[in-house]
Amino acid sequence: MAQGSGHEEQTFSEFYTEVKEIEKRDSVLTSKQQIDRLLRPGATYFNLNPFEVLQLDCDTPLEQIKKKYRSLSILVHPDKNPDNLERAQQAFEIISKAYKTLENEATRKKCLEVYEEAKDRTDMMIAEKKKKLKKEGKYDGVPEDDPVKYKHAIYVMVMKLFADIERRRQQLEVRDMEERKRKREAEIEEEEQRDLQKEWQKNFEESRQSRVNSWHTFQAGSSTSSSSSSASAAAAAAATATTVKSKKSKKAKYTSFNPPKIKPETR
């Protein structure tokens, strides 16, 4: 068991040395190579990890982070790459964003938490894989027992977690934009309603005198009509009274007639 452990340690040591050699080689890439690295196909996801952008381990001290940022920013600066100005500007902005993320203690801590979660998830995944193989009677080790593959599994998980964080951020941004749009549309509708109300009130006030004049005219017409009707009614009543009186007079005249007395005949 101790011999196997010693072999694993030796393998990991060799792997670590190889990784450091690769990092050392990559750290002296030319300006064009660094720009191509940062803008390569699929780099959008890789560049979500600021340690990946600056080619640093997650446990790199802040002073070393600053030094690496300075060297890379000078290397890809647009002023140093006049023949590749647009791509150099994009690469420079990517490096600057990564450094600002790691320079801030709070955001750097969040990035380190991603690494910790990636390691925990990877260990859990490996444990479940081993448990399943043992249950099936097929266990003979797993690929992640190899330190190189184990580190690669953590690396893949780190990229996945950073991608998940970015997707959630974009979703929240979309929802926030939709909410702001909805509120703005509601505000515009309220403003339109207020404008319509003001316009109606304005027209109402401007037409007030016209309505008053119309009412006065109507009132005056009603009074004249009422007087004429009263006069007509009085005249009709007077005519009716005269007619009745005339009839009564005639009746009285005929009622007072006395017929002559008939005298007896004399023979």
Automatic annotation (TrEMBL):
Coiled coil: none annotated. SMART domains: DnaJ (SM00271). Residues 176-267 are annotated as: Disordered. GO terms for cellular component: nucleus. Residues 176-186, 194-209 have a biased composition (Basic and acidic residues). Residues 222-244 have a biased composition (Low complexity). Residues 210-221 have a biased composition (Polar residues). PANTHER family: DNAJ HOMOLOG SUBFAMILY C MEMBER 8, DNAJ HOMOLOG SUBFAMILY C MEMBER 8/LIPOPOLYSACCHARIDE SPECIFIC RESPONSE-7-RELATED. This is J domain-containing protein. The lineage of its organism: Eukaryota, Metazoa, Ecdysozoa, Arthropoda, Hexapoda.
